[in-house]
Amino acid sequence: MIIRQLALRQGRRSLAPQWRSARRWMSSEVDSISSSMQNSLNETHSIESMLNSLPGERVQPIDDETHQTADTENIGTVFAEFKRQRELQKPLGAIVTPHYEPHTLVTNPPRPSDISLELLLASQAHMGHSTSLWNPGNARYIFGIRDGIHIISLDQTAAHLRRAARVVTAVAERAGLILFVGTRPGQDRAVVKAAELSGGCHLFDRWVAGGITNGTQILGRGKVKVVDEFDQEVPGFEEQLVERASVKPDLVVCLNPMENYVLLHECALNNIPTIGIIDTNANPLWVTYPIPANDDSLRCVQVICGILGRAGEEGKTRRLAAAQAGNITFTPADGFVMPGEEKTEQQKLPRVLKLGASIEELEKQDAMGNRPLKKDPLPRNFIEGEVRERVPRFHDAKKDL
Amino acid sequence: MGVELRYGLRRALHSLRAPPTWQQRSCVASSHRTSRPSKAFSTSTSHRQEPFTAAPEINLSAENNIPILKRIRVVPASPSYFSGKPAFTDDLLALQALLRKYQTLPVVETGHAPRIAWRTFESYKSFLGSEPIKASKYQRLVAILHRLNHIHPSLMPQEVKDAMERYKREINPFANVAKPKPVDEWGRAMGLGRRKTSTARAWLVEGEGEVLVNGGSLAQYFGRLHDRESAVWALKATQRLDKYNVFALVRGGGVTGQAEALTLAVAKALLIHEPGLKPALRRAGCITRDPRKVERKKPGHLKARKMPTWVKR
Amino acid sequence: MGRYDFRPQRVFQTASQLLAVEHSARRATPPPWFDIVAKTPPSQVLIRPLQRTQPARRGRKPSRLFQPMPIVYPEDKLRAEFFGDHPWELARPKVVLEGDGNDAMHWDWSRIQQPGKRLDGESVVQRQFWLMQYQGLGKNEAYDKARKEFYKYRHLEDIERRVANEEAQATGAYFGPGPLEYGMKLEDRKWEAWKKWATKEIEQRKQLESAVYSGSETDEDSVDAPADPEALGEEPEEPIAAV
Questions:
Q1: Which of A302, A324, A346 is the last residue of a domain?
Q2: Sign of the alpha-carbon torsion through B210, B213, B214, B215
Q3: I want to staple C89 with a disulfide (CB 3.0 to 4.6 A). Which of A344, B99, B307, C121 is the partner?
Q4: Domain containing residue C98
Q5: Predicted confidence (pLDDT) at residue A61 exceeds the cutoff of 60
Q6: One Gene Ontology cellular component annotation (chain C) (predicted)?
């Protein structure tokens, strides 16, 4: 419905003969609708002709030199008035009881304490894929079949989501680098927000294959910095940063594992734990911590990503609070010397050993580092035994779980 | 025997020198232990707990007591580090956020925003410093800039102006407009034309169609009919032959070059009198300078391109 | 690597082994996730819970033991019956968005109309179910009652819409072409285009037929022949006036 200028309309109506309007009020029969529509159309045409015959232009001409209209100054005041009116009219009308506002999932994401089955249900986390597409590895997370699709068990989702949130919090507390990945269209804002909350990194474009396994080549030109416990940059270490390897994430949160197998595989090769949304057609073995949920619903993905981002925020807050109290909750970066000092021989040795490296290789490294050669290498089990004897057991898994 | 003794001594020393964190390590961890995981999560494999911890607690009352090396870590400078093109991604996100913030401001009509020359793709790429960006990605950025530029000039926030500055070319080619040439006090308009090596200056006044080329009439100066026509082609094509008088000075070159240089000169002078004729003159081919010149002779060639005849032995 | 890659699940064990090796060289730095992953190990994977039990039948092995079961609700049959009788109800637009996840709790099916919910087939099904549950009506009886309530309110809605339409028009509104008018317009356009095409086809065919029967030259050649050379050629040069 298009409403023309009020004054014109009212003027026309006041001029119109009264008996016509009286008849219109009385009419309610169906067959007159078409005729009344015709009348209305005719009237509209007459209004349009009146409008067109009116002097004055509806669109202000714009000066191409100064880019100003005749009432350029006026637009500011008009816009201010528009905003004022909007504010005035905001409280008018009915107040709808809490309802879904899509943007709030990004601007103010839910917290881990907000996880509830209702929230997950409303965000369609339970909708899986067609039964013919399922991966039987997900049998545990599936509640049943409805209308040809698998329904994911929401209590499993909630439990796994809480567990993942706990991991994210703890890693953020220990200043681990968390990478949020969501490469499907529409996931970018959620991913960026989560990274911002948790002080981690985001990826919404495409995972460049080799980012972890061939980091120096792929990410070598990306800048890194040295920060202290308050996340403030510490200058003076720039020369030492140049020769260091690229940064690797300590935890990867992947919102669409189906498209990011390369990333997850690289994480597995580099022993990096991963969290992923596993739909009924995804392979739960690809990630360390699966969250069984619907990865095709943007709402569901935003809820999960937001919760994990909030979890990271909590860990970060705890870490900063500890730093304020004078506690360092993370392992400092090693291999650094104070600016201006020389590195010792021991620090020049390669630090990281690959899995499967044997004691013999260590011996070789020691020999290269001009250390005394050990003639009788210890068997591995002896070393492990010794370690276990010397250090008290604080984390006993059986006690914990 | 001696070796064994020495080794045993080293081990003893190691155990003494073991980091103090081993004894204190789990204070933090145990305090943050939140709740017992439910039975559903019992692992299929029982973990043998290893005596390592990620967070050695260093608790000293005054932070100054902690040496700097004990509290530093390495992090990416940008959260977009893993995208492989962090600077570009940060730029894109910043512009998107800006647009989201000022999306509701009134805009000018399409095509009426100030014309701005944004950086070319190559210029932006070198500006960022060799990030592997694709032209299509840069187009997304330019699209946002274009939209921001359409915010009404009287309401354009300073923030947006500052952000756009970063993507503008150093020199705005649209600001470079030719100075309009006026008709002088005697009603003359001067136009300059060139062709091959000839140069022609033509003055156009309103009149009856008289033409003077270097002091002589058109027929005297140009013997060839075709040249006479091309000298005043601009006037002829627009049917203004009897409305203007032409006074022209032609220098250099040959007859054809002079005649066609005159075409351009007369057309330019005519445009000063009647700018609206430009499309018609362009269709008549009077506005474009013909850039062709005699190609230079090259060494080893007989002429510009001609090669000497190939002789066997 | 094998068929299954368990490395993601075994990050902690791998890290422990690495650390044990590195520790002997006094280089052990556990990653930040080390103790939290130890405390909250990944859940079990590749577990198949038994979904159903089947009575032992002679000569047959139990099958589909580990496949999920279909989820069935008592309303399903009522729904099928209603939409079987009223298939066009399925063509109406339907809101599938959930507000807070408790939307169904806010509804009270002691009456068929609900605030915040459009009257539709689902209303009938829920109302019928409520009547069967709480008023002890039989299935058919409840169906009739709910159905008639539905008809009544649907009729009222129609009247309301019509009156609103009239009111709007009385106050100067006008509506664009409706879906039917629009469809007719499209159809007309197609029909006219076809008519033009068909006339041309018929003409051509007639020409062809006449050519076949008479055996004389058709005028197709002249159609295919290039256009008048005079029209294509350049204009004769005008005599140039001596200036």
A1: A324
A2: negative
A3: C121
A4: 75-170
A5: no
A6: mitochondrial small ribosomal subunit
